[in-house]
Amino acid sequence: MSGSAAALGAAPGRAAPIRAIPGFRTSLGITLLWAASIVVIPLLALLLRPLELGPLGLWESLTEPRVLAALRLSFGAAFVAALLDLPLGLLLAWAIVRLRFPGRGMLDAALDLPFALPTAVAGIALTALTAPNGWLGAPLMAVFGLKVAFTEVGVVFALMFVGLPFIARTVEPVLRDMPLDAEEAAATLGASRAQTLWRVVLPALLPTLLTGFGLAFARAVGEYGSVIFIAGNLPMITEIAPLLIVIRLEQFDYAGAAAVGLAMLALSFVVLLAINMLQRRLRRGRR
Amino acid sequence: MSVDVQDIVRRFGTTAALKGVSLSVREGEFLALLGPSGSGKTTLLRILAGLEGSDSGTVHIAGQDMTGVPARERNIGVVFQHYALFRHMTVFDNVAFGLRVRRQRPSSAEIAARVRRLLELVQVPELERRYPDQISGGQRQRVALARALAIEPRLLLLDEPFGALDALVRKEVRRWVRSLHDSLGITTILVTHDQEEAMEMADRIAVMQGGRIVQLDAVGALLRDPATAFVAGFIGEATRLPCQVRNGVAHFDPLPVLPLQVALPDGPAAAFVRPAEISVRHGAGTASVRLCRTEGEGPARLIVQAGDIMLDALANPGESFEKGESCRLSIRGSHVFAESGERAQGVPLAEVMVG
User: Fold this and answer.
1) What parts of the sequence cross the membrane (chain A) (predicted)?
2) How far is A267 from chain B (nearest CA, A)?
């Protein structure tokens, strides 16, 4: 009561700052309550559970070669997949925004399908497609000797599939709002189309591409359904970290499962933080 | 460089933005394309810059046919309406852009020296490290100009470049751009809808209406001899008064204005009356003074209501009027246009009778 009175009775001679939401304290309180109950408390549980193992036990549980291999695969494949999705997503967004061609509406709608499809369905479809006797798998095998399904390549392929719309959909509205006059100015200053793309368009889109990359990466790290079918799940080779969590749960090793979860959480946080900081650097000077 | 435009036609779908425009700009001239929005002036500018194609007609710059020459090879400096600065680059990098994308790129020391010289020229050397979002509108405009000048253009195109500036800055920047033009001698074409801006800056003005150039003349000639009713109404501060011509006399009924003698065929017409051409006298009449404003030494400026028309007028030197005072109007003379487009000078009847 006294606290809110002090906040309302602003110091004399100083204008109260304008706030977007009325009732700052109340709204902040509600926000924090929701954030706590939905985000913080579950995460806290994830943090506390592995501690049952004790620090040493936790360390041992996480440095098992099988765990390390799974984490390496999950994060490595997610990174590669998000990276490969960048040019593809940009291309798709570009086509939808800048080009007029028959079937553009269909492409626009189809782009969201990976969002809607149950991931297991996607996984089964991708597996059938890339299996050694599949439509795509057979020619790839015959021509390049490349085995997709049941290898790391397959994992990356599945993660690219689920991550692509994140990048395309993040870039699309920004590209749509990007005024053409900067590109025209570049042309009048003597820049070729390639120079304009490289020096004007891409730098302007870079912060957005980075956001899309972060989203696609985060989604890919946590992806389960679409990967487990195509990966083949050979321990140490094509076993992803989320699958390892499920395996440990099935063995009633709850603390061990939570330990892997905690490691994934920590690693994801570090990566996303790094992306955010990079983004802030890229946006310098811009409002 | 001289610019020669012949019969340019440009259609967007079914509407024609330019319906056969011809124009020739002399070397070193400052020309304004003046017209209301939708008159095609920006389209013409974009065709000159190579950002837009034309359906027919030719553009020659310095005698060279520009058909099929892309914008990047034209070496024309353009200042865009909203400046179109590259937001992710510093002011320095913006100005350096045109030098860095060259096939034979100057050394970075040379680029730096030239960029600094240009920023010096546009009087914002201290902004080098700032980003476009961190500087004011007037400063952005100067940076855009420096960027356009960096490529040593043979022609400079300005697309409504002062629209986003506030009135005070605009006036100052206008004079400064004109003086910059005079010292650099680059042929310059300015697109604007602001007649005051065009009159203050340009050597000649091309007045555009509905995709055509209706008159291309020096400022004085446009005021003295407007070619069409549109030009008479668009340039200067003339008020349009509808009238009826009968037997060589223009009658303004029901407006309380004395008729004028004109050599026009019978029928509806319009007189374009400038403030100085109206004489306002004290006395009972059906016109009334709505506003009387004295500005320093000059005659008072009046707004007079006659019927449902508001007229701008100047009082006789030393005279002043009360607001709401009734008064009598007569016209000393004005351009009168018949509906056919025919033009004549209107003369007061009394003068003819006395003469």
Assistant:
1) 31-48, 69-95, 115-136, 148-168, 197-217, 224-248, 254-278
2) 31
